[in-house]
Amino acid sequence: MTDRSLRPTDPSFVGGHRILARLGEGGMGVVYLGRTETGSLAAVKVIRAEYAHDDAFRARFRREARAARRVDSPWVVKVTGTDPEAERPWLATAFEPGPSLADAVAQHGPLPPRAVRVLGKMLARALAAVHGAGLVHRDVKPGNILLAAQGPRLIDFGIARSPDDTALTSADLVVGTPGFLSPEQAAARGDGIGPASDVFSLGCVLAYAATGRPPFGGGPVAGLLYRTVHDEPELGGVEEELAGVLLRCLAKDPADRPTPAGLDAALVEDVPSGAADWLPDAVVRMIARRSADVLALPEIEATVADPPPPPAPSRRRFLTVASAGAAVLAAGGGAVAWTALRGSGSGGTGRKQAAPGWAIGVQADLSGPGKAAGQAQEQGARLAVEQFNARRDKPFTLRLKISDDGGNGGRATAAAQRLVDDADVLAVVGSSTDATTQAALPVYDAALLPVISMSAGQNLFRNIRSFVRGRPLHNAVATKLAFHLEATSAAAPVGLLLDRSGGDLSWMSIQMINVIVGKYGAATHPRVVPAGTTELAPVLQEMRSAGIKAFVYAGPLDGAVRAARGLAGFDGPKYAAEPALDARFAAEPSAAGWSVVAGAIGPDAPSVRSFARAFRTRYGHAPGFWAAEGYDAAGLLIRQLTAAGGGRPAREALVAPLKAAKYRGITRDFAFDSRTVGTPMLATPASFVHQVRGGAFRYLGPAPDKAPRPRGR
């Protein structure tokens, strides 16, 4: 079974529930197994801190929690409690220990036709109750359907909302689970997602239950979304009468789908009451076994007296206490945050604590797979600090505190905590990778320690109060790559190779390039290789045989090297996404002529040359990529510290000025768009073009902001 043990940062109590175990974790929060004072069990979902600090999210959560409590159906888990005003809002539902439909089908195969019809009728009634309460579930999928001894239960209102509430997502954001999305969800038509969307998703669920596969297949997300919008479902093997009902549910036009009541009537079958005999014997045994496993609750040590939970502070009182600098309950729950600006001496000994100093922290991968970029940023930041300390008019002496996370998300929280616990550190540059930044930011946010990241470009860090991103997002860089391709090459078709080893960054890049290149009139020839693929020759040969005239690769550094070797002798233009911006790629002989568009400027750019000379004097070698960005980040933070005036500022006092800062750096002019919700976006999102020449990258200049003209083909 999945590890259900609690972690040190998990709360002991949530809203009167004694927390016993972890049940799961998703994008919106963590779900715990809780027990009330009366002994009843509940699934308690605690919202992540980054959402809790979003006033719009909190208002929406409040409305939807009220609506969810009105849902009355035996086939929907009942909401038993909620507190939208808690520092971290939570919602509790009755606990169902059975397996999910996804688990049951994965282990025991498709359900027989009668079981699918019974399941469909009960879930149709569940949707009727949800819609009757004014909600649209928006994530009806096999994982959100539990099989209990008394029947199925629809769970997880994590992204449910009212049909007229458009605040949840931007118009371009796909919300839900690919494979079980409606066409209107797959096309990100936020204002057109209503109750009929849930019916389409239920049709997908029932097709999955009947066949063991989603009706629009699997594979890359982009292709799956395309088939959902444009292709007919694959219902081979489904009983003819049932297939006819499912085709109505899976109609592309929402108006052509049945209502939940209409679906209930169309599925002609008796619904057994309070029994599981409509399911195959193997699944019934699975329900019994899973119930027994989950209900083997972790023991509570008899030697530890569990104190009753303290009264939950209101959000207003919490913020008042926090602003006064007192110790407050940390956002993770249960742990007490250290008092701001504590001295560096040892507390509790009676010795006088040392006065706090002035320091900037750098968190980076200094010893792991991305150490070249991490070390370059650290060296750039160190040079900025040393130059500041060399000034005769400096108002204080500044130190640099380093914390190595090794490029590992698991180490990143500890690396961040080391800087948080150092009272001298007033602001941080870091971290240097997407994964480590994502892991570290909640630690910094709980302490309101200002952070600027220069190389993490994934759009994962929303509503972190103390964070600014000093580089463009990966999708913005991919857009500039597509514009550069259009500006420099008339060759088509363009081969696009998505290497899944590169994760979301690779998928995002290829999707964006495919859309933009197609928009400007060029044919594309996209191909995908699974994560872990080390032999690219077959797919590259197929692409060359298909007549591609230009080529784009999106994947990790080692894959880019393999792609360059596999395309040796191909004389068309060749481009790679940002991970290829590494000296190891440029050193590959077959990489000659490849172009890379990235958020990092070249160390040979005109605006960076003075810095490069000083860097070489200090370190004895030329700066690597991201060194100039580290220098700029430290320079921006130093400017904010010197502008504070009146002595050493508190950390939290630097947050708002940092977000409003305007700073002329050597890599770009920094300004942050205050109109964006949550994390401020860089208002100057320039990207830069580099080309491999003579075994090294040569800086070619900024990438174009738009394609020059639509093609005439």
TrEMBL record:
SUPFAM superfamilies noted in UniProt: Periplasmic binding protein-like I, Protein kinase-like (PK-like)
SMART domains noted in UniProt: S_TKc
Residues of the Protein kinase domain: 17-279
Keywords: ATP-binding, Kinase, Nucleotide-binding, Signal, Transferase
Pfam families given in the database record: Peripla_BP_6, Pkinase
Transmembrane regions listed in the UniProt entry: none
Residues the entry annotates as binding ATP: K45
Lineage: superkingdom: Bacteria
InterPro entries cross-referenced by the UniProt entry: Kinase-like_dom_sf, Leu-bd, Peripla_BP_I, Prot_kinase_dom, Protein_kinase_ATP_BS, Ser/Thr_kinase_AS
PROSITE patterns in UniProt: PROTEIN_KINASE_ATP, PROTEIN_KINASE_DOM, PROTEIN_KINASE_ST
CDD domains the UniProt entry points to: STKc_PknB_like
UniProt similarity note: Belongs to the leucine-binding protein family.
Name of this chain's protein: Protein kinase domain-containing protein
